[in-house]
């Protein structure tokens, strides 16, 4: 049984992330989706709480028909010491052999800790990246086609778009 871990902040979870998840599940039996920077919320770079990210990802996975026994969703707060982060992560999650990532620091830290690495292809990264989506939410440009439908509906339902505009001072009220 091969289990991999896929770390990200998922602020928000977009169609590129979903493609990475599907790509990974074609190669491993189980995927641990590590929701990083779990302590962060209500900021420009990290508008959503860890719990909200759990919810939006699970809704997207359900809608895709990805069975719940093929993945874990585990939020983990950051720590100050990069050097021991991979070991910190190990403490919170089921055992894994492989790491799925494109983030160079994440790759470096897990490689040094002795893990195998799987680097997914870039799925239209110029379009599917959370920074751009957060920018579109703030400027009012269309972003619904960049995220799974359930993520869009969920963010609207918690007024996450209004939150982001409000904390950046671009809310019209
Ligand atoms: N479109 C994509 N195709 C392939 N990998 C991606 C894509 N978008 C993000 N990733 C990878 O998924 C992991 C988690 O990404 P992350 O949550 O930081 O998303 P992001 O879109 O890069 O967000 P941000 O712009 O806020 O940094 C990283 O390894 C990142 O390189
Ligand atoms: N020292 C640490 O706590 C440490 C080190 C490397 C990555 N991380 C986290 O892993 C996640 C990686 O995801 P991103 O690719 O979205 O940056 C982030 O939440 C990042 O903060 C944490």
TrEMBL record:
Catalytic activity: beta-nicotinamide D-ribonucleotide + ATP + H(+) = diphosphate + NAD(+)
HAMAP family found in the cross-reference section: NMN_adenylyltr (MF_00243)
PANTHER family linked to this entry: BIFUNCTIONAL NMN ADENYLYLTRANSFERASE_NUDIX HYDROLASE, PHOSPHOPANTETHEINE ADENYLYLTRANSFERASE
Listed GO MF terms: ATP binding; nicotinamide-nucleotide adenylyltransferase activity
Organism: Metallosphaera tengchongensis
GO biological process terms held by the UniProt record: NAD+ biosynthetic process
Family of the protein in this entry: Belongs to the archaeal NMN adenylyltransferase family.
Pathway assigned in UniProt: Cofactor biosynthesis; NAD(+) biosynthesis; NAD(+) from nicotinamide D-ribonucleotide: step 1/1
Alphabetic keyword roster: ATP-binding, Cytoplasm, NAD, Nucleotide-binding, Nucleotidyltransferase, Pyridine nucleotide biosynthesis, Transferase
ATP-binding found in the keyword field: yes
Protein name per Swiss-Prot or TrEMBL: Nicotinamide-nucleotide adenylyltransferase
Primary location recorded for the protein, binned into one broad class: cytoplasm
Subcellular location: Cytoplasm
EC number: 2.7.7.1
Domain of life: Archaea
Record-linked SUPFAM superfamilies: Nucleotidylyl transferase
Pfam families (UniProt xref): CTP_transf_like (PF01467)
Residues annotated as domain Cytidyltransferase-like: 5-135
């Amino acid at each position: 049984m091969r289990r991999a871990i896929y770390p990200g902040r998922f602020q928000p979870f977009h169609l590129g992330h979903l493609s990475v998840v599907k790509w990974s599940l074609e190669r491993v039996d189980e995927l641990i989706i590590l929701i990083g920077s779990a302590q962060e919320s209500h900021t420009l770079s990290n508008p959503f709480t860890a719990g909200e990210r759990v919810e939006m990802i699970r809704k997207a996975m359900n809608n895709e028909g990805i069975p719940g026994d093929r993945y874990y969703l585990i939020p983990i707060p950051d720590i100050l010491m990069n050097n021991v982060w991979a070991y910190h992560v190990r403490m919170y999650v089921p055992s894994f052999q492989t790491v799925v990532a494109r983030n160079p620091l994440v790759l470096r830290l897990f490689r040094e800790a002795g893990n195998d690495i799987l680097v997914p292809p870039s799925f239209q990264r110029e379009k599917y990246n959370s920074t751009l989506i957060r920018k579109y939410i703030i400027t009012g440009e269309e972003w619904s086609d960049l995220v799974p439908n359930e993520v869009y509906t969920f963010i609207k339902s918690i007024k996450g778009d209004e939150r982001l505009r409000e904390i950046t001072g671009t809310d019209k009220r």
